[in-house]
C-alpha cells in the first residue's frame, strides 16, 4: 500500500511539474512574440456569432488591422470555415469586419475550408504558395501562439507571431491557457509520432 501511495504521489508530482513547465513556456512564448515585416498576416479562425466575429476574433482582427496599418504586411489572410451556429464562414465575417475598418477587399484573402489550427495554417500555406508569399505574421490569442508556432514549423511556414490578450474576458483567457497546455502536448505527441 505504501509503495502504491509513493508511486501515485511521484506520478502526481511529475504531472504537476510538466503542467507548470508547459504553462510557463506557453506564457513566455505569448508575451515575447514579436511580429516581423512579412508578405502577409494570417488571422487564425475563431467563433462567429451569427454574422459577426466573437470578441476574441475581433481582437485578433483588430491586431491584424493594426499591423497592416503600421506597414508590417500588405495582405491579410483570414481563416475559418462556417461552423455550427454561424451564418457565414469565419473567414467571410473576418473579411467584412476588416473592410469596414478600411482594408481594401482585394488585399484580404479568405481561407474558408479549415476547422482546426492545423488546417488554418495548412490551407493558408497553399494560399501563400499560390501568391508567392515567403513570410507571414500569425495572429491569435497569446495562449494559442506556441502551438501555432509548432504547427507552422512542421509545415515549414516562415512566420513571426503577434498575440492578443482579451482583458474583459479573463475567465475565458485563463481557461484558454489551461486547455492549451493539453492541446500543446497533443500536438507535440503527434509530431513525435510522425517522425
UniProtKB/TrEMBL annotation:
<dbReference type="Pfam" id="PF02698">
    <property type="entry name" value="DUF218"/>
</dbReference>
<protein>
    <submittedName>
        <fullName>YdcF family protein</fullName>
    </submittedName>
</protein>
<feature type="domain" description="DUF218">
    <location>
        <begin position="40"/>
        <end position="171"/>
    </location>
</feature>
<dbReference type="InterPro" id="IPR051599">
    <property type="entry name" value="Cell_Envelope_Assoc"/>
</dbReference>
<dbReference type="InterPro" id="IPR003848">
    <property type="entry name" value="DUF218"/>
</dbReference>
<dbReference type="InterPro" id="IPR014729">
    <property type="entry name" value="Rossmann-like_a/b/a_fold"/>
</dbReference>
Amino acid at each position: 500500500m505504501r509503495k502504491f501511495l509513493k508511486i501515485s504521489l511521484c506520478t502526481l508530482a511529475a504531472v504537476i511539474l510538466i503542467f507548470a513547465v508547459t504553462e510557463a513556456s506557453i506564457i513566455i512564448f505569448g508575451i515575447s512574440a514579436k511580429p516581423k515585416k512579412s508578405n502577409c498576416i494570417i488571422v487564425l479562425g475563431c467563433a462567429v456569432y451569427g454574422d459577426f466575429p466573437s470578441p476574441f476574433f475581433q481582437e485578433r482582427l483588430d491586431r491584424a488591422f493594426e499591423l497592416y496599418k503600421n506597414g508590417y504586411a500588405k495582405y491579410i489572410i483570414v481563416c475559418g470555415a462556417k461552423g455550427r451556429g454561424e451564418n457565414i464562414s469565419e473567414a467571410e465575417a473576418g473579411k467584412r469586419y476588416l473592410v469596414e475598418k478600411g482594408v481594401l477587399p482585394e488585399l484580404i484573402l479568405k481561407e474558408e475550408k479549415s476547422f482546426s489550427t492545423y488546417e488554418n495554417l495548412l490551407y493558408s500555406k497553399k494560399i501563400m504558395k499560390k501568391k508567392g508569399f515567403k513570410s507571414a505574421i500569425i495572429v491569435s490569442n497569446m495562449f494559442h501562439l506556441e502551438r501555432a508556432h509548432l504547427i507552422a514549423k512542421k509545415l515549414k511556414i516562415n512566420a513571426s507571431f503577434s498575440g492578443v490578450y482579451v482583458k474583459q474576458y479573463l475567465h475565458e483567457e485563463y481557461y484558454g491557457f489551461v486547455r492549451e497546455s493539453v492541446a500543446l502536448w497533443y500536438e507535440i505527441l503527434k509530431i513525435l509520432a510522425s517522425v
